[in-house]
Amino acid sequence: MTRCLMAVVAVVALCSAPALAQPVFYDDFDGRALLPHWNQPPPSDWEYNVSNGMLNVTDLFYPSSPKSPTNYTFMGASFAPQTDLQLDFRMGWGEGVARFDLTLLAGAGIIATIGYCEILCTTDPGIFARHGASRVAIPAPPPGMYDFRITRAAGQFNFYFEGDLFASFQDIYGGPVNGLSFYFSSPYPGPSGPFHIDRVQVVPAPATVVAPVLTLAWACRRKRQTAP
């Protein structure tokens, strides 16, 4: 093993403890029913199943009113209060989705939101991020399954879609967050969904091992390329 690669291994060993922090919330929907940590909407509001390692929402029924252009519902959960954190989740949608997002909460207060919006959006339709009055939207891809992330550290929120950073906002709240909520919305009248959630995880702080390891690995690669 070269000295450079040995250095990479040493950094991994030193940083592995904070990088592998235990989740304060985790669900991969492995089973046939929602786990009790979810605060579910009433059965009259939605139709869903848990199968193939995912939550699948297949229909929404509330409020089904000609005065409302959408049907919608929420599903939430609590976790131990966190200041700096990293939230990762994978979700997807098909045709007939007006909005599908996840919000970080402090009690009943909305702290940060990321997701997909097509109808009644506070930003342009697309993949969006929001914190307070700050909002950013990027063009949405076609229906499918996608990875989302929110990090909060050093007084800043960062929002990622498919591994790419697309929004950063200064943290105007500052206090701990202790919950999350998924929002499902479909056009009314019209076909609903489907919505899919593959997994969701919250860890106490962003992983710290990635930056130093990537820096050292890149240096090793450059050294190999320039070696005589």
Features of this protein?
228 residues; 8-stranded antiparallel β-sheet; 6-stranded antiparallel β-sheet; 15% helix; disordered C terminus
Structural class: mainly beta
Q: Give the percentage of residues in beta strands.
A: over 45%
- The sequence of SSEs as H and E is HEEEEEEEEEEEEEEH
- What's the Cα radius of gyration? 20 Å
Mean pLDDT: 85
What does the main sheet amount to? 8 strands, antiparallel
E-strand count: 14
Tell me the span between the first and last alpha carbons: 18 Å
Low-pLDDT regions: 7-18, 208-228
Textual characterization of the structure:
This protein is mostly beta strands. The protein contains 2 helices and 14 strands, in the order αββββββββββββββα. The protein has helices at residues 3-19, 210-226, and strands at residues 25-27, 46-51, 54-60, 70-82, 85-93, 99-106, 109-117, 126-131, 134-138, 144-153, 156-161, 164-170, 177-187, 195-203. It is globular. The protein starts with a helix and ends with a helix.
Précis, in short:
The chain is mainly β. It has helices at 3-19, 210-226; strands at 25-27, 46-51, 54-60, 70-82, 85-93, 99-106, 109-117, 126-131, 134-138, 144-153, 156-161, 164-170, 177-187, 195-203.
Lay out the secondary structure.
Elements: H1 3-19, E1 25-27, E2 46-51, E3 54-60, E4 70-82, E5 85-93, E6 99-106, E7 109-117, E8 126-131, E9 134-138, E10 144-153, E11 156-161, E12 164-170, E13 177-187, E14 195-203, H2 210-226
Antiparallel strand pairs: 1-14, 2-3, 3-14, 4-13, 5-10, 5-14, 6-7, 6-13, 7-8, 8-9, 10-11, 11-12
Helix pairs in contact: 1-2
